[in-house]
Amino acid sequence: MGRVLFDLSFIGMACGAISAQMVCCGFTVCEMFRLPYTPERYKLFTLVPAVGLLGVMIKSPIWLPVVASAAAFTMLPLAPISFLILNSKRSYLGDAVGCGWKRVAFNIAPGIAVAMAVVGSAIKIKTGVVDKLFPPGPPAASP
Question: Whole-model pTM?
Answer without folding.
Answer: 0.46
